[in-house]
Amino acid sequence: MPEQPFELSAELQQAVSSFFQRIPFNQVLGIQLGELSPERVVMYLPMKAELIGNFVHGILHGGVIASLLDVAGGAMALIGAFERHQQLPSAERMARLSKLGTIDLRIDYLRPGRGQHFTAQAVLLRSGNKVAVVRSELHADDGTLVAVGTGTYLCG
Predict the structure, then answer these.
(1) Is the pTM of this model over 0.70?
(2) Cβ(96)–Cβ(84) below 8 Å
(3) What would the pLDDT profile of 103-131 be if each residue is shown by its tens digit?
(4) Which NCBIfam families does UniProt cross-reference here (predicted)?
């Protein structure tokens, strides 16, 4: 009998949203959640003066870029882990998911982060029993690809 396709219920969307909104660093950066689905995660970041790394040119700081790609990647890994562990009792699933953390993160900075609004997208490349691999991209408001990242996450 084929498995039912995984759907991110409203309850699970709220759980992922709440998890990431409760992280103070995400609030400091001003990360806004967009789409949360089994296919992809989308997050937004409005530019503000505190996020500038090159004050002469008003360019987004590289650490902010890496952080945003990591947060989007972590959210995607969490959703992938929900799918892999959906058969577990709720308490055991939450205990496993509470261990979510970044193992490795590689960022390729392609162009300067110029703009007033940035969009990060993440897709799951692989979700195993304990580790997930996620690919992320950051685009400026004019569509320019600013950076790409590949993250490996411990997720259970």
Answers:
(1) yes
(2) no
(3) 999 999 999 999 999 999 999 999 888 89
(4) PRK11688.1, unchar_dom_1
